[in-house]
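Order emerges. As here.
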Amino acid sequence: MNNIRKMRPGEAVSSKANEERDEFERDYARLIQSPAFRRLQGKSQVFGAGSGDYYRTRLTHSLEVAQIAREVAKRLERINPFLQKREHPGLIIDPTVVECASLAHDFGHPPFGHKGEEVLNHLLMKDYGLKYEGNAQNFRILMFLEKRAGSDSGLDLTAAVLLGINKYPFLIEEEGRLKGVYGAEWETIREIRRLWNMPAGCSTLEAQLMDLCDDIAYSTHDIEDGIRAGKIQMNATFFEDGRLLRHLVMEILNDPNNAKFEWEQVDLEKMVRRVLSDYLEQWQQIFVECNREPSRTRREMKARWVSLFASRVDIIDDLDRGWKKVTLVRNEAEDLDLLRTMEILKKLAWVTLIKDFRVQRLQKRSEIIVERLWDSFINPDKGQWILPPDWMDSYERHKGKWTWPRFIADYISGMTDAYAEKVYAELFASKSGSIYEMD
């Protein structure tokens, strides 16, 4: 069982296999020492990276997800006897694997967050019929683009970590598929899944746990940032605003993933009102407990919600799929009420932060930057002279399986927010830095 989980599909049998370090610990080291991990510090979470030294970036978000996920994994190992049986490679929870998956889950995000992803997908689809998607790009980075000493094919991670990152076990090129894995990387992922005898469309317990802890972090930490920024105002006027309520309801109804919450079983508008009212009431109570200090209150609110969600994570039978499900559980059944509450808080963060008109203006600016960069590079005859030489060398080595449009998408998507702005300024602003700056 261990061998099938610790195999490295991109790597020949390692001469270092007898090292004292566990294989998953080697994965951890490879991830945190990779340039892709460091670049997360310069990528937007909600507010643009560099907006202020308080707000989260993709890096701090990923670290927080990893911390929550590791703690929950250790608890699940203790309380679920079936995990000790290790009956199936996909029905195991190893805290180090979950931590690695959490650290790497956002590697594929381009600069400027979801707007960058949307623009790159539009540009690739419009003229070339190719898709761009952050989760798929994640595997492209981990299995092809990222470089490691002695390898020309990514970080050569173990099978367990690769499947632990794979929230959407599908080929993205399939008709109508919005999320998944690009064809080249899917061949390897599909082969691992075949060796593991994974049921179609099902993720490993480790991938499910990582995904749920990502949602826990999003629904608690991003709200903390929003309160700190003044975008979420902790008063009745803000929380009872009819426009906010309408936006939240519309976001929930328009979400393509909303079926799993079975919203039709509840009065959606009434539940949104209740969650907002309870949240404000809890804030007011904790505000008094914390001597009316807003910063202490923010931290205490966040800590209590993370603790509530994390303590309810458990594993139940997924009868529809003949598999297991990691979810929020109460009385040995899925706690749909708490799941819906978490989703409403996620949408509160989205509506008040991403949909804020100033953030929308920044996103419009970032859309223009990505489009102009694309236009500058997409003609190979001209683009090759303004691309870094190491990228061009890599393209020449792999061009038999690397189309120019995908190459340009890979290059732009690897940029941090600040680096994209820098290149844009060099190409289009009237002034730029020294030509002797190192890229």
Remarks:
- The beta strands are 313-318, 323-330, 333-334.
- The mean pLDDT is 91.
- The first helix runs from residue 2 to 6.
- The longest strand covers residues 323-330.
